[in-house]
Design a protein that fits this description.
287 residues; alpha/beta; Rossmann fold; globular; binds adenosine-3'-5'-diphosphate
């Protein structure tokens, strides 16, 4: 099996996508009360699959401790979606790595809500580099330099980071969309949970907020077998090479980029975001 399949020019991992799953995605009937967490890969998808059910159910830990993340909050474009969708009660929670323009037709006429999580692309690249080393279903990433070239050229899962964030940042969704960054979530998880709950219209007591933030901390999630991918066989995800929940920090790129790599990476990203008036918290960082 080829590791990737092409979908409108985007490389998608063949292990989790098929012509059928993409047809299912395209024809999916989005409901007005559906909630999507949308991410470019390695930007906090698994984290959102933990946080959102707890917000909607008032902090009941049962689902996050008994249902694997991929069935609890499925990827709409993946092969599992068709099998598990009927098990979801409304409001349905889903994740997707799709850019805005490729969302199913019914999404655009619905009132479904979206939380878009963006992450510093330098950290996304580092996280993805280690993920490629541990995931046997992906290409060997090569050297860090080689992988950077692929990342900047968009020859990686779901294409270019810049195209993905631009598509969602420029999406005309009014109050249907909440933008947040992984980096803000790292800085103040309880504050982020509160923003999500306000956005979704779920009232949470201070005690429940605290409980959810504490359960969704990196160290706590690392021990949750329903979310840390430890159920996946070693031949598929080799945790001797890297853990799925690897470091969970903001700014790990500083441990991996040389000044030359940093300059090349920033220049390429800034050039592509240049005309789009998109600003992120990490833009203020000194180079
Ligand atoms: P690192 O590789 O930098 O550690 P995704 O789920 O989109 O594939 O993203 C995976 C990244 O999110 C990994 O980043 C993982 O550790 C991080 N992550 C998952 N849960 C987290 C949490 N509770 N706190 C902080 N980071 C988390």
């Amino acid at each position: 099996m080829e590791p990737y399949m092409d979908y409108h020019g985007l490389p998608l991992p063949s292990i989790a996508h098929s012509q059928d799953s993409l047809k299912y995605f395209e024809n999916f009937q989005v409901k007005d009360d559906d909630v999507f967490a949308i991410t470019y890969p390695k930007s906090g998808t698994t984290w959102m699959q933990e946080i959102l059910p707890l917000i909607l159910n008032g902090g009941d830990l049962t689902p996050v401790k008994t249902i694997p993340n991929w069935d609890r909050v499925p990827w709409l474009e993946e092969t599992r979606a068709a099998q598990v969708m009927d098990n979801l009660s409304s409001p349905r929670l889903m994740v997707s790595h799709m850019p805005y323009n490729l969302m199913p037709a019914s999404f655009f006429s619905s009132k479904a809500k979206v939380i878009y999580v963006a992450r510093n692309p330098k950290d996304v690249m580092v996280s993805s580099y280690f993920f490629h080393q541990m995931a046997s279903f992906l290409d060997d990433p090569g050297t860090f330099d080689e992988f950077m070239d692929k990342f900047l050229a968009g020859q990686v899962l779901f294409g270019k980071w810049t195209e993905h964030v631009k598509s969602w940042k420029e999406a005309d969704l009014g109050d249907r969309i909440l933008h947040i960054t992984y980096d803000e979530m790292v800085q103040d998880l309880k504050g982020a949970v509160k923003r999500f709950s306000d956005f979704l219209g779920c009232e949470m007591s201070e005690e429940t907020l605290q409980k959810v933030a504490s359960h969704c901390s990196f160290n706590s999630m690392k021990t949750n077998s329903m979310s840390n991918y430890s159920m996946v066989p070693q031949e598929v995800m080799d945790t001797n090479k890297s853990a799925f929940l690897r470091k969970g920090i903001s700014g790990d790129w500083k441990n991996h980029f040389t000044p030359e790599q940093e300059s090349k990476f920033s220049t390429a990203i800034m050039k592509e975001l240049g005309g789009s008036h998109i600003k992120f918290p990490w833009d203020a960082e000194p180079l």
